[in-house]
Structure formats: structure tokens, C-alpha cells
């Protein structure tokens, strides 16, 4: 995670507060976020909102500045009217501030109208109440480059771990790196850790995030062994890249484990979804465990102080409508669960059908599933392992993370 000086942070907070104050005076609905890479999508929503008489704007910040701003606002009792956040433990942490509006009535209307399934609200629940509107309900899948698969003589999508490893061997033999994986933006280190753990022991993954399993226990050791073996075989790209999506589009690797929100970003690199690349849910390492998939749910939150304002109420009704979600799906290629909105692309449509037809169990992403006090230092350890994927580095990472987790759970009853 990037660290910035107090003076820079103070200026960012002051600027954000000034922007927020001006927006409130003009009765403009301003949504604060840390996703500038969705700018085309935010612009599309702004234009569509204008047609419905809603004055909407979006204000972007770097993730560390954004988190500092929101936390500072909550501590001062002056939360922004609308802002994006994360689900899981991160959502509960700020709901506990008492400043976030429950949206149960809004969701009840939308579900009754057939626009959303009740299951779409589950990731945004805290203590039985719903606290977010979706900016994304995104599954983490493996994208694959069709031309590179063909070049390596792979004629079908792997449906078992053995088939996946056989495909990797063919790709490597053809001079093609199998997997794209980087440390871009500092947070990505946990992706392969969580994926390998749910593919070997999903119950252990849940237990780990609840403090009922140690980071030095066998399920975690098994993950680091598999992960390290994949590195030893040369199956990953250089982790130092800061252009992960473009690297995949440029053909630097044949496969890319990522959230389906990356599809639009890959297309910007020149590949077309469904035509040049497609996707599949990674098969389990252990075929005996249930079918599971990581689902990243990103909520848009409303403060209690703003929830009854006419312009905010109008925004909420509009935002969860098919018209808004059609715009969101079209521009950045994102999916937010509205049943009456169009699917953003063929990959999302196909994966959603597979997950539904084959009854995949949804797993909360590690970033949201485990407490922030553990996740942030753990990610730094995972990052270090990716730059030096040796058995010794794995042992160090496990011990260091376990020391932090043990201390946290001792204080919080895990």
C-alpha cells in the first residue's frame, strides 16, 4: 500500500471536503470513489442521469487517500452523502459507525419488481440489514487468449486441475507463459493465495478468515507449496508489471486470473470479449471439494444524514433501474445484478449461467472476508513471496502473517 505524507493527505482531505460542500450546496449528487479506471463508466452514468433530471458527478481519489478521507469523515460525524466501498468486514466496520443508511425498503421494491434477485443483496448485508447498492457483482475467473491456446495446441477449455496443468505444460513448451500475475497497485498479492485455498479446502478458507485456522496450519502450507511449484515451473509473468490488463491483451501470458470487471480494461488493449478471449471458472485442485467461486461485491453507500434528501432519494431509485445499469454495463463492461438490464458481454453472461446451473458456492473475496488489520500486512507478505517464491520465503510469510493474525484474534475473540 502506498504511503503518503501527512501534508499531502491533509491537502487531499481539504480538497475533498471543499468539493463535497460545493456539491451539497448545488444539490448535485456527488459519488466519491477510488476507481478512476472506470471513468468512462462514471461519465456514462452522469449523462444518463441527466436525461432523468438528476445532476450527478463522480469524484475520484487514490485508494489510500480515499480510505483516509472516508475514515476521517466518519470520525468527525460528517460522512459523504454517497460513496463506494467494499463489502464483508470492511462494510461492517463503517456500518458500526452508525452513519450509513440501511436500504432495505429500496431493495424490497426492486426485488418485488423483478429487477434483482434477493441473493444479489446478500453481499451487502450487515446484521440482517442491507447497506449498499451494487456497483459490481463480479466473479473471479480465468480469462484465456484463444489464439495462444490454439498456438499451443490446446483445443478445449480445461475442466479439471490435471487438464489445466497439462495446458500449462503445452503453453510453456510453445514458449508462452501460462499465467499473468502482478503486484500492480500493491494489493493484488492475495489473489492466487485465496484462489488456491478455495480450490483445495474452501472450509479452511472460511475458518482462516474467522480466526479458526492458523496461517501456519497444513491447508495454508499446502497452498504455498502449490503456488511455489507453479513459480518454479515458470508459469507466471514478472510480478513487477504495472500494466496487468494490457499485458494480457498484448499476449504476454495465455491466462489471467481476475475479476470479470477487468473485461472492459482488457478490451481497451485490443482484444474483443468472446472473440479473442473468453473465460472459465478455475477448476478445483481437489476434485472432491464443492464447486466454488470468488464473488467481489462492491457497494455504493448512502449516509443516514443524506438518505431523506429528495435528490438522494431520486438518485437511489434511478441508480438501481435498468436504464442506469444498461449504461453501466455498456461503457465499462460491468455487471451489477439487475435482471432487466442487458448483460455487459458474452463472458459475464456465460459465467453467470454456469455458476447458476452448476450451483457454485459464492465465496467472499479475501480483501473483504478477513479483517483489515490482518489483510493489509498479509498482502505485503504475499507480495514479497511473489517476488521471491522460495520455500524459505513461504515459511517467513506464513509465520509473519500468523503472528499478526494471532494477536488480532486474541484481542477480538477469534
UniProtKB/TrEMBL annotation:
Entry-linked SUPFAM superfamilies: Periplasmic binding protein-like II (SSF53850)
Record localization: Periplasm
Major site of localization recorded for this protein: periplasm
UniProt KW keywords: Periplasm, Signal, Sugar transport, Transport
Domain of life of the organism encoding this protein: Bacteria
The protein, known as: Multiple sugar transport system substrate-binding protein
Similarity comment: family membership: Belongs to the bacterial solute-binding protein 1 family.
Record bears the keyword Transport: yes
Residues annotated as signal peptide: 1-26
Amino acid at each position: 500500500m502506498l504511503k503518503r505524507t501527512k501534508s499531502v493527505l491533509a491537502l487531499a482531505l481539504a480538497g475533498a471536503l471543499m468539493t463535497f460542500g460545493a456539491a451539497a450546496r448545488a444539490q448535485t449528487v456527488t459519488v466519491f470513489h477510488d476507481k478512476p479506471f472506470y471513468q468512462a463508466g462514471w461519465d456514462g452514468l452522469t449523462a444518463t442521469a441527466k436525461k432523468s433530471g438528476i445532476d450527478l458527478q463522480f469524484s475520484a481519489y487514490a485508494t489510500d487517500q480515499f480510505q483516509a478521507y472516508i475514515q476521517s469523515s466518519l470520525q468527525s460525524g460528517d460522512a459523504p452523502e454517497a460513496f463506494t466501498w467494499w463489502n464483508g468486514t470492511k462494510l461492517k466496520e463503517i456500518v458500526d459507525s452508525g452513519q450509513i443508511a440501511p436500504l432495505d425498503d429500496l431493495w424490497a421494491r426492486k426485488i418485488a419488481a423483478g429487477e434483482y434477485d434477493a441473493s444479489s443483496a446478500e453481499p451487502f448485508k450487515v446484521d440482517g440489514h442491507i447497506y449498499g447498492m451494487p456497483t459490481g457483482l463480479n466473479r473471479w475467473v480465468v480469462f484465456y487468449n484463444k489464439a495462444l491456446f490454439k498456438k499451443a495446441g490446446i483445443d478445449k477449455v480445461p475442466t479439471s486441475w490435471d487438464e489445466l496443468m497439462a495446458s500449462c505444460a503445452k503453453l510453456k513448451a510453445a514458449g508462452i507463459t501460462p499465467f499473468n500475475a502482478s503486484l500492480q497497485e500493491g494489493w493484488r498479492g492475495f489473489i492466487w493465495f485465496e484462489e488456491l485455498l478455495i480450490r483445495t479446502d474452501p472450509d479452511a478458507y472460511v475458518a482462516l478468515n474467522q480466526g479458526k485456522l492458523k496461517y501456519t496450519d497444513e491447508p495454508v502450507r499446502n497452498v504455498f507449496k502449490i503456488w511455489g511449484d507453479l513459480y518454479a515451473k515458470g508459469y507466471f509473468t514478472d510480478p513487477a508489471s504495472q500494466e496487468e490488463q494490457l499485458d494480457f491483451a498484448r499476449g504476454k501470458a495465455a491466462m489471467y486470473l481476475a475479476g470479470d470487471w477487468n473485461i472492459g480494461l482488457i478490451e481497451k488493449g485490443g482484444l474483443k470479449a468472446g472473440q479473442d478471449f473468453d473465460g472459465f471458472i478455475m477448476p478445483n485442485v481437489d476434485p472432491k471439494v464443492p464447486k466454488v467461486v470468488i464473488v467481489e461485491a462492491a457497494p455504493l453507500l448512502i449516509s443516514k444524514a443524506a438518505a431523506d434528501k429528495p435528490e438522494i432519494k431520486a438518485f437511489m431509485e434511478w441508480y438501481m433501474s435498468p436504464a442506469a445499469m444498461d449504461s453501466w454495463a455498456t461503457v465499462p463492461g460491468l455487471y451489477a445484478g439487475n435482471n432487466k438490464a442487458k448483460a455487459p458481454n458474452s463472458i459475464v453472461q456465460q459465467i453467470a449461467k454456469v455458476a447458476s446451473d452448476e450451483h457454485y458456492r459464492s465465496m467472499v473475496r479475501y480483501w473483504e472476508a478477513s479483517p483489515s488489520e490482518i489483510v493489509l500486512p498479509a498482502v505485503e507478505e504475499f507480495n514479497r513471496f511473489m517476488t521471491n517464491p522460495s520455500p524459505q520465503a513461504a515459511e517467513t510469510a506464513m509465520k509473519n502473517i500468523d503472528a499478526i493474525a494471532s494477536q488480532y484474534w486474541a484481542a477480538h475473540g477469534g
